[in-house]
Amino acid sequence: MRLKTFPGGIHPHDEKHYSKAAPITNFPTPNRVIIHLSQHIGAPSTPIVAVGDTVLKGQLIAEPSGFVSLNQHASISGKVTKIGKFMHPTGALAMGIEITSDGMDQMVELVDDENFMSLPVESIKERIAAAGISGMGGAGFPTHVKLSPPADKPIDVAILNGVECEPYLTSDHRLMLEHAQKVIDGLKIIMKVTGARKGMIGIEANKPDAIDLMHKLCSKEKNLEVVGLKMQYPQGAEKQLIFAATGRKVPAGGLPMAVGVVVQNVGTALAIYEATRYRKPLIDRVISITGSVVKKPMNILAPIGTLYSDLVEFCEGTTAPVGKAISGGPMMGFALPSLNAAMTKGSSGLVLFDEKEAKSMAEHTCLRCARCVDICPMNLMPSLIASSVKYHDLDSAVEAGLNDCIKCGSCAYVCPARIRLVQWIDTGKLRYAEAQRNK
Asked: Which tens digits make up the pLDDT trace of 91-100?
């Protein structure tokens, strides 16, 4: 298989050896969970339960507060004990619903609709929306919205993102190995809903077993193709994946639908399959708990809202003091002040570094070496954008492509001056958003 890729990018050590061979393990019912009301892009969900209410596992506890919003469900059975602010995986405080387990783990009744592929498109969309599914690869866009492009943006290609290019993370890899057919069935549902005639599964070359298995299962399907991709970060970013797989270039400021493509994560495809066939809400997901200080790195199927501290304890704790905890991967994840945060639908991993690995390096003056320009997958000048933000020249930052930056972190990774390019660009995005609100 000829490996494909995109221009630019970097080659960080993937560090997947910690957990890639660890099979998916079911997490026992936690004592409590915190269901955040913001687990997605868009408006936070609105609670429909009150403190003291008894809920079943899978029961609806919060509804969408707008078109781009989500249903939220209880991931364990028990009692609602608090509605308030809790630590979010981004490190900030955010509204959520705390449920304390009753030890019964009672689930709402599900069905097995064996003829799920014969359902009308609108019925499938309704089931996906009812299940509260959002993108599980990181961005968290509500899936029912993403699968409803406007009539003037027809979709002819659906791509499953099995790249998992972030170092350390292996949850998608294990999903493809252990639930391959369900993932493929999810892709077929996506194709039916969007009208796509072609389905593709993009997988990076460091997962040859997943490539082989998926290729074997798709080989008899004329409209399905497995695309092997070079190890090149950020290969899993939507625009880079689309270019590598199809040769189509999404215009600046545009969405994949602009070139007739929809992209979904492999975990999202599995959730779509379960929602369509069983009407199962998105109440659990696979998450990688990994890093050099984790005693037993694992890939865990855990209820949404499980505390990171409980997951680390399930991995038998750590072998040394934790120097840094990162929710997500080390390139695009969020550093946490503690492990008291609860995982969300978009939580693909938790990476723990020791104190030496977490050492912060001093920022120096830009050397004008242009390494950040050479590797930028969006063809931007990160150093120019960052310096414009630093000196409060927001107009110049926007003109240089501030809003096109995908915050992949490649520029900061190669910068010999250790300039915090991503943080400066992110600051610029926040300032720009505030300026737009104040207009």
From this structure: 889 999 999 9
Could you tell me if 72 and 132 are in contact, meaning their C-beta atoms sit under 8 angstroms apart?
yes
The residue extents of the domains of the chain are 1-26+105-359, 371-437
Alpha carbon distance 358, 323 (integer Å)? 5
Task: Identify the pLDDT of residue 437.
Answer: 87
Task: Please name the residues in contact with 310: beta carbons below 8 A apart, sequence gap of 6 or more.
Answer: 27, 30, 31
- Quote the pTM value: 0.95
The answer to whether 64 and 43 have CB atoms below 8 angstroms apart is yes
User: Each residue of 334-365: b (16+ CB within 10 Å) or e?
Assistant: eebeebebbbbbbbbbbbbbbeeeeeeeeeee
For 1-26+105-359, CATH number out of 3.40.50.11540, 3.40.50.790, 3.40.605.10, 1.20.140.10 equals 3.40.50.11540
Q: What is the DSSP letter of 292?
A: T
User: What residue type is 263 in one-letter code?
Assistant: V
Q: Which residues contact 21 (CB under 8 A, 6 or more apart)?
A: none
